[in-house]
Amino acid sequence: MRLIRIAVVNVNTTVGAVRSNVDRAVRLAREAAADGATLIALNEQLIAGYSPEDLVHWRAFVDAQWAELERFAKETADLSAALAIGLTVARGSHVYNAAAMVHAGKILGIVPKEKLPTYNVFYEARVFARGCPGLLDTVHGVPFGDLVFDFDFATVGLEICEDIWSPDGPMRRRSYAGAEVIVNLSASPFRLGVVSTRREMIATRAADNQCVVAYANLVGGNDGLVFDGGGFVAQNGRLVHEAPRYREGFTAVNVDLDRTRRLRNENTTWRDDQQIFAADAPRIMHVPVTAKSAARDALTYPVPVGKSFFLPGEAPRTTPREDFCEDLLDALALGLGDYFEKTGAFKTIGVALSGGRDSLLCLYLARRWVKRRYGGQGAEVETAKAREILRAFFMPSRYSSKETHAAAEQAAKDFDAPFAVVSIDDAFEPELARIEKMLQPGETLGTMARQNVQARIRSLRMWTWANSSAGLFLQTSNMSEKAVGYTTIGGDMEGALSVIANVPKTVVNYLLDYLVETTKLPGIILTLKKPASAELADDQEDEKDLMPFPVLDACFALYAGEKMSPSEVREVLRQMFPSHDAKTVDAWGTRFARLFTQSIFKWVQTPLCLHVGNLDLDRERALQLPVVQRTEWG
User: Fold this and answer.
1) What's the pLDDT tens digit per position in 169-182?
2) Which residue, 382, 478, 496, 513, has fewest beta-carbon neighbours within 10 Å?
3) What is the pTM of this model?
4) Residue 102: domain span
């Protein structure tokens, strides 16, 4: 047996906090080494924090990372484990997203990322240069380029995040060149369903390349990106380890590399392809490692769960519904909490509770983060922290119902948030009177203006509270309403962080239904008793103002996601919703296209948003559409 122990380390970094990031990496690396790790995989851009974006144009920022890499090597010099860590590296006039191999106090080599994503939330090709096959050079006297590392326990290759998502990435040639273990350093943002995709893809790459793949992902929130952490170790197609997500720390697994060597020696397609590749291969440098690696005498063979090589493991203990809801709730809570803590500008978190679904979910997410952050210190500390940090405000007008008041008050109680009721009626009519003085002959205060002024009074008060209390004012609108402009500029579109702006209303309702089932909290029960309403006018209901939310969300998915024309959207809607009159469905589809196009100018003004899906409504990072446009083509 040729046993090694691979540690997957997840570090919660902050962009620009190069010293603090390395401090965390050193601490966790030492813990993993004490656990007997032979090889330790850390995260992409660990020293810089991800994503550094245009910060890499500041050469002092890049130079500081090299200095911190040297410190990392020095402070782990007494460890025998090999360590892979991510950073930005300068070479000539270019900068690279790179991985460094460190061992026994020495920086052995630097491997640049080759596949630079520019889709969805990524802009890497804007700032980074690409690595390429056969690239060989030095930086600071250290080998740089297309490298593999010959340790006494195995030959190891490095790659970074997107490199693994291409079947024709650097893993193929480095495994052909002899690398038995490929370490992938990742900063892969959370997206709904991504964990199953990652799991399958990594196992496939390990099978395609007859190697061991160790994948370590960044954990934590930075700006609107949420990184769920976790990681995998797969050996020749078999998944042998899955690290827990949403927490900083490390986990490890033993692997027998004799299995990989044996499978490579079998008369397989991989062996044939490797021999063909070797005849005309790009030059890959083997970096010899002379220092001894960690002792492996105490490692034991990785016996399967259940102690059977033939029977399946335990059945899943969760349902797809639970997995979906818990995953999304964890991601949103992590993104919110890390934004609150890492920004350094806030002491409290404030939510304007309306008694409705969206603001309730946002307050719940803030409380969920408090539980994850402080729950380990005991129930009393957790409750005290919730009361110290959270704030809930109910600002009723004449249109607010007793039911929503009761729901808001109960929700604040459920979540241990101090609650204040501050009516806006005293400001409503005087504000309308002042606005009337601004109108010219023939101009009148319309229904929309009377509704929107209420939202603007509330947001003004929330901003003033935020200034007075170092408060993080949460914007609570969902993606469905945002998509069609069912929001108020200067009103409910205001806030310092838009928590659920990329969560459709149907998903909001689904999450709250799940929370009712799992928590039985009376505030959620009371909130769901009443139809969704902005309560800016008598007998107002959101779906009556717009259309049924399942229809609206279908319109958005088909138009913005599938890029269908308005006529194609209407055709699919008729198939999806046969219980509705065809003319009514057509009218909804037509109305959606008009509202969506006319509302782009509104949603481009929303605060920073958390990204949790493949279809996000964010002009900066996701759906880049011109504000001025028409739909005559559809």
Assistant:
1) 999 999 999 999 99
2) 513
3) 0.94
4) 3-291
